From TrEMBL:
It comes from Undibacterium amnicola. Residues 23-276 form the EAL domain. It comes from the Bacteria. The chain holds residues 394 to 671 of 676 of the full protein. This is EAL domain-containing protein.
Amino acid sequence: QSEKASGSYAFYDVEMNRLIAGRLYLESGMRRALQRDEFFLLYQPKVDIHTGQVLGAEALIRWAHPKDGIISPIEFISVAEETNLILQIDAWVLDTACAQAKIWQDAGIAPFRIAVNVSAKEFTDSLAERVKQALARHQISPHWLELEITESMLMQNADGVVKIMSEITAQGVKLALDDFGTGYSSLSYLKKFPIDTLKIDRSFIQGIPDDIDDCAIASAIISMAKQMKHRVIAEGVENREQFAFLQKMGCDEIQGYLFSRPLNVDVFSDLISKKISL
Ligand code: C2E
Ligand code: CA
Ligand code: CA
Ligand code: CA
């Protein structure tokens, strides 16, 4: 073996150990976080592109780590998925979002949709029942809830998937197809699914208006969504050029830093009654 090769093996071992230690640290940390209630939700407004009215919010998880500060879901969701801790975490998210909806409902605020992200592991036969129980436990109208699912979940087995989705939408809960355009599903699948909203992934919004490919993809998704009678929302809208383009193309809603970052619950509560000036 050459020196170079053994050197790189040694490096590989060190890296591997670091990765494994990092994962174990996260895993035990997340178990503790669930017990000690270290997770919290931020709410990012979804805004009507024509009126500026806040139509809903996406609930986005954060972890207030006692030593490491606020940790983003990008750092821990994939490890949570590998270890099945995601089931407990997403159950916590659903429960917390519904509890918050109950607070707003009791305050006399008109229902707007709180969108909760569903991980692939969670998308099983029991999902509709878990959603039903969460609504019942918190005594909220189903109009409060929307689930964001991704294309890859729909590819697993189409018939089973349609059944799960129909059981959810039959309750009055809406479904959005998240990160749309990044998966590999055949578009013909779209016809079969009881989806309310297509959510254009941020990666296609980023290059608007200079990147002609991004412009073409975003407009194609918007026009297809309209013709299929779906609503369409763009995520990651950061500037006025993107906003103007999307408005011109007929996009219904936008979400992104241009209007608001994800907000803590108190700030979001203040915002609900107001319109965002466009
Ligand atoms: P996502 O579902 O695609 O959520 C959108 C992400 O884009 C969020 O990142 C949001 O903060 C960010 N974002 C929103 N507007 C802008 C913008 O204008 N510019 C840029 N650069 N980013 C923007 P976040 O909160 O870090 O979440 C990352 C991902 O983690 C989410 O991607 C979602 O897949 C996952 N995630 C977040 N919360 C949960 C959860 O409760 N459960 C599960 N299973 N996954 C979650
Ligand atoms: Ca999402
Ligand atoms: Ca996305
Ligand atoms: Ca996503």
